[in-house]
């Protein structure tokens, strides 16, 4: 396994900010013993939005803080960034566990939602503008959180991840786990994928997170098919059919897959492998923060 690709996002540390990334202790329920880091820009917007940003396997919250330019945009626009960090399972999120795949069931997902609650109550953040993004294992966890906690997240963006519950039934979700069926492109029908989401929170009839799925066509570690499967899932959950593909969008060489009117489910595919291709402006527009 090309494990080094997971940690290559540890780019140079950003030093230009007045504010800095802070570790938070005792933020609330934390059943799997993960860690919380927060970035609060010096000039916080009134009733600020929150973005939860999830690191890949082998990464940490502080590494992922340096892995995108979201902190610079937080300085400009006043939103809060939460960087959860897991020390477990090769620093991969527990996306295979029933706990995380169940609303209020525990696991890493519950600890992350309790970080969101802490941030809302401590800093007066806006409960209606909570977003989640992540790369690789973080992209997988983005789909898990959107499925298990639809009431918490207004929108999500999963980079090089897998559908909610794709690893369900596998013993682990790391590049070293014996069962890589999910990462190799496990296929279900849209209805089956949708049922995984609905069964995570039976009886829930409220809003569902708008989802953007970003994937490299040449990704052999978490195959491009995984992105297409995630789109089948969210298109079923939102009840929006694929309408069209737009070539050279959002930029040259990429293709945008538009579902319905494109406001609820969208796929972005480009010719790259397993690497984080986060276009922050594009992401923040999807979240409605630009
Ligand atoms: C995660 O790692 C921490 C620190 O090593 C440990 O205390 C905790 O039990 C682990 N959690 C799980 C679910 O393995
Ligand atoms: C988060 O806050 C909501 C609303 O107060 C509450 O219903 C939920 O149980 C909390 N979840 C966690 C994980 O703390
Ligand atoms: C492998 O994992 C998939 C989920 O990713 C699961 O459906 C399948 O049953 C697992 N296979 C075995 C042999 O455990």
TrEMBL record:
Task: Supply the source organism for this entry.
Answer: Remersonia thermophila
This protein's major location comes to: secreted
Q: Does this UniProt record's set of keywords contain Hydrolase?
A: yes
> What's the superkingdom here?
Eukaryota
Which N-terminal stretch is annotated as signal sequence? 1-18
List UniProt keywords, sorted A-Z: Carbohydrate metabolism, Glycoprotein, Hydrolase, Polysaccharide degradation, Secreted, Serine esterase, Signal
- Give the protein's biological function: Esterase involved in the hydrolysis of xylan, a major structural heterogeneous polysaccharide found in plant biomass representing the second most abundant polysaccharide in the biosphere, after cellulose.
- According to its UniProt record, this protein's enzyme class is hydrolase
Q: Which family does it belong to?
A: Belongs to the carbohydrate esterase 1 (CE1) family.
For this protein, the record's InterPro entries field holds: AB_hydrolase_fold, Esterase_phb, Plant_Biomass_Hydrol_Est
Subcellular location, in the record's words?
Secreted
Lineage runs: Eukaryota, Fungi, Dikarya, Ascomycota, Pezizomycotina
**What EC number(s) is this enzyme filed under?**
3.1.1.-
Q: What is this protein called?
A: Carboxylic ester hydrolase
PANTHER family according to UniProt: FERULOYL ESTERASE B, UNNAMED PRODUCT-RELATED
